[in-house]
Design brief:
Strand content of chain A: 5-15%
Number of domains of chain A: 2
Structural class of chain A: mainly alpha
Distance between the termini of chain B: 35 Å
CATH topology of the largest domain in chain B: Rossmann fold
Oligomer: heterodimer
Order of helices and strands of chain A: HHEHEHEHEHHHHHHHHHHH
Number of helices of chain A: 16
Number of domains of chain B: 2
Number of strands of chain A: 4
CATH architecture of the largest domain in chain B: 3-Layer(aba) Sandwich
Largest interface: A-B, 24 and 33 residues
Largest sheet of chain A: 4 strands, mixed
Radius of gyration of chain A: 31 Å
Helix content of chain B: 25-40%
Largest sheet of chain B: 6 strands, mixed
Number of strands of chain B: 10
Structural class of chain B: alpha/beta
CATH superfamily of the largest domain in chain B: P-loop containing nucleotide triphosphate hydrolases
Strand content of chain B: 25-35%
Strand order of the largest sheet of chain B: 6-7-8-3-9-10
């Protein structure tokens, strides 16, 4: 009987346009849109900064060591247009109103100080809110500084290696897969959790509050079907909807990579291919299942208690913040799955998925996470049953 | 048959409800110790003004609510102890009944047939009979949301009768319907009577009661004010018509001080 109710409710749910959009359309589109926008913006931004010809104001003599080298800088370091100015009074203003991108102020004593082998002063003036300008300026200076150092080593007949006290070799034992898993792996489960929640939300409201609002619950309750059968049939659809929304997000990610070719970095692509294995997907859904049951079990008592779609939505929507936002803690590098974090619901799923992506998930911690979520899911189902069995809740 | 003895229903009031009803008591008595009997092949009408306790009584008969006290017997089954068995014998229709707008009449009828556990062969025959009777063939595959009120009413009737119930409970079945659409319900009640089913319906429309019922009970503020046959009611009337007599009985009960 539970399956008969489940089948009917699923059919009813899949015919609801609003639920379909929230459950399938948006989750499928989210990864392609995010990646497309991200790749597009970052590519155009990098290109724009590299192509930009900087207007550089110079105050000081038109001929000194630094200016000579500055004019002779290779074009690979970025195009530039040099404008000589007589004084510094207008420099700040010119930079702030974008008439200049950068200014060099070279004191008249530069050459004499430089000749004495002392650090000669140069002032670089820029606006830090113009992204990329300071990096270009530093590159210019480092390049000239490199040339000057080489010249001094030769003049002073110094072996450059004698000024290097250490030869440090940094050896990173973490694989790229581990680094990606632990540093950015939190985003993937977060998106699944967020869509799992939204996927559960509309069917939960529609199948419980909606049925009360439309006046169909009374007739259902007069049929010779046990109430818990009705509850489980409906709950099954809520859980499946949450999992479908998460699957749609996974499909969106797959399409972004395999069909739309939005990830161009070969190395990253190989790691993603390695991560997105069949075993990974199975494990991911095994972790998401109790979480989705828990979400359904939290939403259903609210949907059973409330009397209108609007009322239910106004309570469940803020709940989204309370339940899904903590999952963001999993974003922070350094927070890892341990016996304590494994006992914190929702966060444990994010952290376990991160470990899963990195390939470092420990069985004991997985067991704790899974047990915590299953226990909570059972408790949430019991609360749902208690609420659904209350006369005052099920009939308006 | 329906046999109700000393039936009562109390509701616990929430803080909000106590404020709304301007009361300090925690309990509200919706139905207070009522007893009556509905016979097969007869139509029993439960009369009462708004808030009298009609819907609560019918919800208890249809096993949606559990009574606080008393007993209910539906077609020989103790409906409190064996609610699930009793439900198999009951057809329940209210004026506010909704239908699943995204499903078709065929899908809704098939769903309820499954819920009542009707064997496939019986289901096909009953569906065909009801579709012909109610002239439903033309819209059987259209989404219910796109049907007219009259068509929806026919689907509701078909849904109520698909398991061929012995007892049919109607809670203000014609409320909100125009005369033409309400006629489907009137005809259904008359058909049920001819078929020997036990019919109970609540209403405050006296013309319907006059037209259909064999026995009646009047309740007000949860108390039973009258229970007897329609012919006895008519012959003992102190007013010129049944509407006036109904009003007189209700008013008289309000003036009676219960010690």
């Amino acid at each position: 009987m539970i399956f008969k109710i489940f089948k009917k409710e699923l059919k009813d749910t899949l015919r609801d346009r609003r639920t379909l959009i929230m459950m399938l359309v948006i989750p499928v589109l989210i990864f392609p849109i995010i990646l497309n926008v991200f790749v597009g913006i970052s590519a155009s931004f990098t290109e724009e900064v590299a192509q930009k010809s900087l207007k550089i104001g110079v105050v000081g003599s038109e001929q000194n060591y630094f200016i000579d080298k500055f004019i002779a800088l290779p074009e690979q370091l970025g195009k530039k247009e040099i404008i000589f100015l007589t004084d510094t009074s207008q420099l700040n203003k010119l930079i702030q109103e974008d008439s200049l991108d950068l200014a060099l102020v070279i004191p008249s004593s530069f050459d004499s100080t430089f000749a004495k082998l002392k650090p000669a002063e140069i002032n670089l003036i820029y606006d830090a809110t113009d992204v990329g300008i300071d990096e270009r300026a530093r590159n210019y200076v480092q390049h000239i500084e490199g040339i000057a150092k080489q010249e001094r080593y030769i003049d002073l007949q110094i072996d450059e290696t004698k000024l290097m006290p250490f030869q440090v070799n940094y050896v990173n034992v973490a694989s790229k897969k581990e680094m990606i898993g632990k540093l950015v792996g939190g985003i993937l489960p977060y998106v699944f959790i967020a869509f799992g929640f939204i996927g559960c939300m509309y069917p939960a409201i529609d199948l419980f509050t909606g049925e009360k609002e439309r006046g169909t619950i009374e007739t259902l309750l007069t049929t010779p079907v046990k109430r818990w059968h009705i509850l489980f049939g409906k709950m099954g659809v809520v859980v499946i909807s949450g999992l479908l929304a998460a699957s749609a997000a996974l499909l969106g990610l797959f399409l972004s990579i395999e069909v739309f070719d939005l990830v161009e970095n070969e190395e990253l692509l190989n790691i993603i291919h390695e991560v997105l294995s069949f075993e990974f997907v199975i494990m991911l859904f095994a972790l998401l299942f109790p979480l989705t049951v828990f979400f359904a079990g939290v939403m259903i008592p609210i949907a059973v208690y409330t009397k209108s779609f609007k009322e239910a939505q106004s309570i469940i929507t803020p709940l989204n913040i309370v339940m899904v936002l903590p999952a963001m803690i999993g974003f922070f590098p350094g927070i890892e799955l341990d016996p304590v974090t494994a006992a914190i619901p929702v966060i444990n799923i994010v952290l376990a998925t991160k470990e899963l992506i990195a390939g470092t998930l420990e069985f004991q911690l997985l067991l704790i996470s899974f047990s915590v979520m299953v226990t909570l899911a059972i408790m949430a189902v019991l609360v749902s049953y208690k609420q659904f069995d209350k006369e005052s809740n099920i009939v308006i | 048959m329906i046999k109700v003895e000393n039936l009562s229903k109390e509701f616990t009031l929430t803080k909000q409800q106590r404020k709304e009803y301007a009361t300090t008591t925690n309990k509200a008595i919706a139905v207070n110790d009522i007893s009556f009997e509905c016979q097969p092949g007869k139509v029993f009408s439960l009369l009462g003004p708004n808030g009298a306790g009609k819907t609560t009584t019918l919800r208890m008969l249809s096993t949606i609510f559990k009574p606080t006290n008393g007993s209910i017997n539906i077609a020989g089954i103790d409906a409190i102890k064996y609610a699930q068995e009793a439900r198999k014998k009951i057809g329940f229709l209210t004026g506010s009944t909704g239908l699943y707008a995204r499903l078709t009449p065929n899908e809704v009828i098939a769903y309820f047939a499954q819920l009542y556990g009707i064997p496939k062969a019986d289901y096909q025959a009953r569906r065909e009979h009801l579709y012909s009777l109610l002239d439903m063939h033309d819209f059987q595959n259209k989404r219910i949301g796109k049907l007219s009120t009259g068509m929806k009413q026919k689907v509701s009737i078909c849904r109520t009768m698909i398991h061929d119930p012995e007892v049919v409970i109607f809670d203000e079945p014609t409320s909100g319907l125009d005369v033409i659409t309400a006629e489907n319900i009137i005809k259904l009640i008359q058909d049920c009577k001819i078929q020997g089913k036990t019919v109970i319906f609540s209403s405050h429309i006296m013309s319907e009661v006059d037209l259909l019922c064999d026995d009646l009970a009047i309740i007000h503020k949860g108390n039973l004010l009258y229970s007897g046959s329609m012919s006895d009611f008519r012959s003992n009337m102190k007013e010129s018509n049944i509407t006036a007599e109904f009003i007189r009985i209700v008013h008289e009960s309000q003036n009676t001080v219960v010690l």
